[in-house]
Amino acid sequence: MQFGHFDDVKKEYVITSPKTPLPWINYLGSENFFSLISNTCGGYSFYKDAKLLRLTRYRYNDTPLDQNGRYYYIKDGDTVWNPGWQPTQTPLDSYECHHGLGYSRFVSSKNLVAAELTAFVPLADSCEVNRLMLTNNGTEEKTLALTSFVEFCFWNAVDDMTNFQRNFSIGEVEIQGSEIYHKTEYRERRRHYAVYAVNCPIDGYDTDRDAFLGAYRGNDRPETVLRGTAGNTVASGWGVIGSHHIDVTLKPGESRSFIFVLGYCENAADDKWEAPGVINKKPAKEMLSHYQTDEQVDAALAELASYWDGLLAKYALTCADEKLGRMVNIWNQYQCMVTFNMSRSASYFESGTGRGMGFRDSCQDLLGFVHLIPDRARERLLDIAATQFEDGSAYHQYQPLTKKGNMDIGSGFNDDPLWLIAGCAAYIKETGDFSILDEQVDFDNDSTKAQPLMEHLKRSFDFTVTHLGPHKLPLIGRADWNDCLNLNCFSAEPGEPFQTTGPSEGPVAESIFIAAMFVKYGKEYAAICRRRGNEEEAVYAEKEVEKVYQAVLDAGWDGEWFLRAYDAAGEKVGSKECEEGKIFIEPQGFCVLAEIGVKEGLAEKALTSVKNILETKYGVVLLQPAYTKYYLNLGEVSSYPPGYKENAGIFCHNNPWISIAETVVGHGNRAFDLYRKICPAYIEDISEIHRTEPYVYSQMIAGKDAAHFGEAKNSWLTGTAAWTFVNVSQYILGIQPDYDGLTLNPCIPSDMEEFKIRRYFRGAWYNITFKNPEHKEKGVSSLTVNGTAVEGNLIPITEGCTEYDVVAVM
Q1: How far is the C-alpha of 242 from the C-alpha of 205, rounded, in Å?
Q2: CATH number of the domain enclosing 705
Q3: Which residues are in the Glycosyl hydrolase 94 supersandwich domain (predicted)?
Q4: Which is the catalytic residue, given 203, 391, 444, 483?
C-alpha cells in the first residue's frame, strides 16, 4: 500500500494522505539553522544545536502524534481547518504534501478555499520562511480569519521540559507591529532571541499559550481561534507562543499571500539592550527585510534549488532502472547530506537533547558526502580529531555547538580511533589534499597538546596495536560498532544502566569486527604513510596488519563463518558452540570487505552462511538465533525482545557491508539483490508494513523473530545512508576514488547492459559509459579515455584536463 508517489522531475515525494503510518518528515536547512517538518506541519526548529539553541517546543512520545509544529488555522464560518490537516484534523477536500530538497509544500483545500503553504530555510539567513497562499475558488466572496501559531522553547530543550519550577516564571516577549519577539533569558545570561513575524499588518496577536488555548484545551480547538478574534495577550511566565490574527477577505478567484518568518537573532556581546528591558531588534529587522515580497521568496527558493542541483550534479546516474536512478541521483545523496548535518542528534527518534555528534558516526557519514562538499568534510574531520585523547582513544560523542566531548558518554568504544583513519583516507582519495595531515589539531580540545593530524592517525593506529587480547585480537572496550555488545559487562542491577570497566582497560573481551576494521584501515594508514614518504612507518603498519589478519584466521574462524568476539571470560561469541546468537552479520561483511579469507576460500563460505541463516525477505538480520533471555556476559544486546534492534533485527546500517562483500567475491546479481531488499524506492508498495518514509533509509527493520516483521524504526539519521551510497556508487556501479585517480571496478547484475555516470572529481568532470555486452557481473576488460585506450582500470589524471569522456567495457 502506498501513501504517495515519487516525482523525479521535481525531485519530490508527494504524500497524498495526511494519515501516514508514522509522521513522514523532511529537513529544512543546510548549515546553521534547521527545522524538521512533517507531512502534517509538525516538527521543531533550532540554531546549530538541537539541545542548546531550540527555538520551538516539540512533544515527543505524545498522543495524538506529532505535536507541536507551525500551524495556520483558517476559520471559514463555523469551519476551522489547517493546510497540513493537523492539529484540527478537519477532513479536507484535497490534500498533498510535497517533500522536496530543503523545502516542503502543502497543497490543500476546504469549502472552495485553496491553501498552498511553502516552508523552507533560506541559504542566506537563520530563519524558516513560510509562505501561505490563499485562493478563493468559489463564486462568492469569502471572509476568513487566519491565525498563525508556534510555541517557543526556552532554548535549552532538556531544561525546558524538566525545570518547571523555574521555567514557569521566566517567559518574556515584546510585540512591535507584526513582529513577536521571544526574549526569554535575554537579559544578562544570553544575547540571542527569536522573532516570529508576518509581512502585513495584523488584526491582533497572542503570546500567552494558556489564554490562547483556553482552559484544558489543546491545539486542536484553541478558544481564540474558535472565537475568531485575538486576545492581544502579552506573556509573562508560563507558556510563550507566537500567534498572529489576520482578517482576510477574498473575492471570487482572488489569491493573497502571507509570508511568515521564524528567525534566530544574536546581538554583539556589548550590545544587549536597545533601552532598559527592550532588545536590539536591528538584526531581526534586517533579516525580515529579505522576505517581504513574493519576488524575494521566489528568489530565495530559486537559490535553494540551484544549491541542491549543483550538489547532486556531482554524481549523476543514467540507467534503465528508474528506482535505482532516483535513489542514486536524489534521495540517497540528499539523506547523506542531512545525516552529515545532524549526525544522530535531531530526528523524530532522537530528540536532539542527548547524543550530539558521534565520533564514529560522523566519520562514517563523511564517506557518503565527501564528494559533495569536500571543504566541509575537511572541517568536520578536524573537529572530530580534536576530541581525541593523547592515547588515540576519543570521546564517543561531542556537542556541535561547543565541539566539546560529551562527558556523559565518555570514551572506551575501541572502534572509534580507526574510523578517523577511514574518514581521512576517504577525504584524501576524493580530493588529493594531503595537506590536511599537516594541520595542527588539539587533543581533547586542549591547544597546548596540538599535533599534526598525521600524528592523530598514528595514535589511532597504535591504539589498536597496544590494545590486543589473549588471542592477539583487538580489545573491544565498552563496545565496538555494536554499542549493545557489552562483553566486559560486570553488573546490571534492575533499572540501572549497564556497567562496564573503564574506558579501555580491564577484562579482555576481544572483537573480530575491530580486527577486520584494523586490517582494512590499517592498509589505508600504511598507504598514506608511503605517499608521505615515511616508508619505515608504512612497513611497520603492514606488519601489524598482517599479524591481526593471521589472528583472525587462527582464532576468528568458526568453520562456516567468522566469530563475532570473545567475551571477558574468553568464551566465544557468535559461534556454533553458542546456545543462541551463533552467527552475527558484522564480521561476515567487514572481514570479507577487508579481504580477509578471500584467498583462503573462507569468504564464500561466510557469505553462504549469511544467505542460509541470516537473510530474510526484508533484509539480513543482525544475528541468529535471537536471544530469548538475558546474558550478563553479553550485556544490552540480549535485553531487547527477539527481532528488534541489535537482537536479530534487520540493522540496515550493516546490510551494505554484506552487499559490498558480495562484490568483493564478484557476485553482482547477489550484491544488487541485497541492495534492493532495504532500498526505500523498491519497497514503497509495502509502506503500511514498513511504516517509515519510503524515500529515505531507516536504521532498523524488525526481523523475522519480531511480532511486527518488516516494520522499520529510526528513519533519516543513520549510517545506512552513507554506507549504502558507498555500496551502490563505489562497489556496485564501481567508480572508486583512489589516491592516484578514479578506478573503475563495477560489480552489477548481469542483465544490466549499459549505464552512464557523470562524476565531478578533483576539478574535472568525468562522463563515464559502462557497456556490458557479454552480461558479466564483475570487472572491466577495456578502458578508453578521451579516445585513447588505457591499460588497466585506473583513469589517469591529465594535467589541465577538465572533461574526460570514458568508455569502459565489462
Answers
A1: 8
A2: 2.60.420.10
A3: 11-292
A4: 483
pTM over cut 0.90:
yes
pLDDT one-digit tens code per residue, 709-742: 999 999 999 999 999 999 999 999 999 999 999 9
- Contact in structure between 154 and 57 (CB atoms under 8 Å): no
- The domain in which residue 796 lies consists of 313-342+681-810
Give me the number of domains the chain comprises. Answer: 4
**Which strand ranges, in their side-by-side order, compose the sheet holding 782-785?**
315-318, 754-761, 764-771, 803-809, 782-785, 788-790
The answer to whether residue 654 sits within a structural domain is no
DSSP H helices, 240-321, are 282-288, 294-312
Structural contact between residues 287 and 293, judged by C-beta atoms closer than 8 angstroms = no
Non-local (6+) Cβ contacts of 686 within 8 A are: 1, 710
Q: How many CB atoms lie within 10 A of CB 63?
A: 7
Cα four-point dihedral sign 476, 478, 480, 485 = positive
**pLDDT confidence bin for 491, thresholds 50/70/90:** very low
Q: Are residues 82 and 163 in the same domain?
A: yes
User: What residues form DSSP beta bridges with 735?
Assistant: 744
C-alpha R_g of the chain? 28
Rounded to 5°, the CA angle 682-688-691 comes to: 80
Whole-angstrom distance, CA of residue 685 vs CA of residue 704: 19
**96 domain residue, yes or no:** yes
Which residues are within 8 A (CB) of 125 and not within 5 positions of it... i.e. 6 or more apart? 33, 263, 287, 290, 291
